[in-house]
Amino acid sequence: MKPIPKIVQLKRSNKRYKIAYGGRGSGKSYGIADVLALTALAEPGTRILCTRDIQNTLSESALAILKRVIKERGTGGYFKDTKHGLACKNGTDFIFRGLQNPDRIKSLEGVKYCWVEEAQRVTQDAWDMLIPTIREPGSEFWINFNPDQETDPVYKNFVQTARDDVEAVKIDWRDNPYFPDVLRHEMEWDKAHDYDKYLWIWEGHTRTVSDRQVFKGKFRVGAFTTPDDVTFYYGADWGFSRDPTALVRCFIRNNILWVDYEAYGIGVDIDDTPALFDAVPDARDWMITADSARPETISYMRQHGYPKMRGADKGKGSVEDGIEFIKSFEGVVIHDRCKHTADEFALYSYKENRLTGEPTPKLEDEHNHCIDAIRYALEQVMRRHGSVASIAAADLGL
User: Fold this and answer.
1) Torsion on CA atoms 116, 6, 29, 114, rounded to nearest 10
2) Residue 74: exposed, middle, or buried by beta-carbon count in 10 A (0-12, 13-18, 19+)?
3) Where do the DSSP E strands lie in the chain?
4) In the chain, where are the structural domains located?
5) pLDDT tens-digit readout, 227-270
């Protein structure tokens, strides 16, 4: 039985709150059950509380997962069934409770480990009741969940908020050595046909606010073969501080914009940037239009193997014009190796009117580094043709 490395990372941490969050099929619940079953054997007389938002019967609890990992490890002889769940013969006891009955939680004493499963459903009131209950010296919370809304208490309190007592790891299907083929098929279907759903279900993103999505219904993600006779357009965006440096390659065919390669890195030193860009085929041979806000970086790149790099013209309204130009294509197809580009197309949003909750025409300045690179790449095309219809006519020789 092979442990999940990121769950082992949590076990080695001395933080009170150990958070495993991410997409389905990642093995989060299985990995935590395995850790707690081994802990039960190693620490005689320990009380372990397994809880979730609603649990009326043991069949709704994590008991079945615990029994499965115990059986697979061949340690069943050390455990026994009890009236309320499961116990280890060394005196360690597993307790199963639903958070809908606060009095049954608050009355518990001596709990060393608390496992909160499917924590995205737990309310703030339930957290406020549960956390003070677990007060043994060295006590720990093991919390797993599939993200839903950014406003969910578990996401706000333990992922978005920087706390020195939290160890949080994002786990997806790639981290699960036992990810089954039947789920892989479902994942690939969602990835090809509903990328927003794929990001939420399988990659563990929070749900996208679809009404504000800039490219809602305009793109898809999948594998394709790049034709030999296309003209490539390369665009680069430079990283500032924690922002990424990105290079994107795209081409136009049949009134569709195709994105087939990207290079992407955070905290990339300027002298490492040429090597990063080399990940995109033929980048040294084609014109690259880059963000002109960093002329010294463009100059450096020209002197280090990228002589055809130029600065974007930009100007007032260039962002909005560039976005509308991309949206005017019949569609955008993003190769599935271009993960960051695909993520940005799903997450790039219009700002929200804080009074009405409605989307405004103003663009959020985030999730847009690869998209900015695409705007720069297409700058001269847009300037020359003015519209996608004109490009299509040119393709047809009209």
Assistant:
1) -30
2) exposed
3) 17-22, 47-52, 79-82, 85-88, 93-98, 111-116, 140-145, 166-171, 219-222, 233-237, 244-253, 256-266, 288-290, 309-311, 331-335, 350-352, 359-363
4) 5-175, 208-395
5) 999 999 999 999 876 789 999 999 999 899 999 999 999 889 99
pTM for this one? 0.63
Beta partners for residue 20, in sequence order: 144, 169
What pLDDT digit, counting tens, does each position of 80-131 carry?
988 878 999 999 999 999 888 888 888 888 999 999 999 998 989 999 999 9
> Is-contact 250 257, C-beta < 8 A?
yes
Q: Tell me the CATH architecture of domain 5-175.
A: 3-Layer(aba) Sandwich (3.40)
CATH number of 208-395: 3.30.420.280
The strand ranges marked E within 136-255 are 140-145, 166-171, 219-222, 233-237, 244-253
Burial zone of 254 (CB within 10 Å; 0-12 exposed, 13-18 middle, 19+ buried): exposed
